[in-house]
Amino acid sequence: MFSPQGPSLRELCVQAFSSVERGYDLLAPKFDHTPFRTPDSYLGASADALSELGPFDRGLDVCCGTGAGLMVLKSVCRAGITGVDFSAGMLEQARSAQPDATWVQADARALPFSEHFDLAVSFGALGHFLPTERPALFEGVYRALRPGGIFAFPIGAPPPLTSTAHWATLGFDLAMRVRNAVWRPPFVMYYRTSPLPAVRDDLTAAGFTVTTPALTVLGQRRDGSPRCRLILARKPTDPH
């Protein structure tokens, strides 16, 4: 499915009826051949925007998956870079692709770091956290950053009501809600549970100062608004 190197429909069904961790362990060897991997255009646009704010020293990729986001960290960080994910399968793939990075298996809702990083990034992971779980995620990233550190991630504008993407994401989320209502363990993956205003409010509540510059290179919607923004959540230099 998706490409000759990607997972089959049967493999996707098995993964979808597993837990999130087990599902990604199964998907890991073929993950980079699916549309679920963050496109290089988003990674490149994020790296270009962050290059204007850096360089940084230590970088952290939160929910790193197979390590695609490490290319962003490598381009803007001059010291060590670290990826954290709770899927051993995804980390195995990431380690083989980026052997010089540090890899940590941990739940992003309980990150095991304290004031160690100058930059944290995350790509395509918010849909794996229910709205009630975002505060723990953001508070953990806040603790992991040094004063003045930045947490950055792209967030797309919602697709227009008349677009295929709108109905596709709506249908996907409804299907996942039905699946999680009738099947255990749950598989948390939703496209429509992290709107920009709610994400910004949760980051602010965690202590960050938030700005949302447009990633103009990724284009505009018909109304002239940007297709994608880069969330820049900065930890104050004097957080106390």
Architecture overview:
Pfam families: Methyltransf_25 (PF13649). Keywords: Methyltransferase, Transferase. This is Methyltransferase family protein. With 240 residues, the protein is of the alpha/beta class. The protein folds into two domains: 1-36, no CATH class; 39-158 and 195-234, Vaccinia Virus protein VP39 (Rossmann fold), CATH 3.40.50. The chain has eight helices and seven strands; from the N terminus they run αααβαβαββαβααββ. It has helices at residues 9-16, 20-27, 40-51, 70-76, 88-97, 134-144, 164-182, 196-206, and strands at 59-62, 81-85, 102-105, 117-121, 145-156, 209-211, 228-234. The protein has a seven-stranded mixed beta sheet with strand order 3-2-1-4-5-7-6, sandwiched between helices. α6 links the parallel β4 and β5 (145-156). α6 (134-144) crosses α8 (196-206). The longest helix has 19 residues, at 164-182.
Judging by the overall fold, what is the CATH architecture of the largest domain?
Answer: 3-Layer(aba) Sandwich
What Rg do the Cα atoms give? 17 Å
Under CATH, the topology of the largest domain is which?
Answer: Rossmann fold
Proportion in β-strands: 15-25%
Helix content: 25-40%
* Shape field: globular
Q: What is the total domain count? A: 2
Which structural class do you get from the secondary structure elements?
Answer: alpha/beta
* CATH homologous superfamily identity of the largest domain: Vaccinia Virus protein VP39
Strands side by side in the biggest sheet: 3-2-1-4-5-7-6
CATH C-level class of the largest domain: Alpha Beta
How would a crystallographer describe the biggest sheet? 7 strands, mixed
Number of E strands:
7
Q: What's the mean pLDDT score?
A: 89
Span of the ends, CA to CA: 51 Å
- Reading the helices and strands in chain order gives HHHEHEHEEHEHHEE
Q: What's the total helix number?
A: 8
Which residues sit in consecutive blocks of at least 5 with pLDDT less than 50?
none
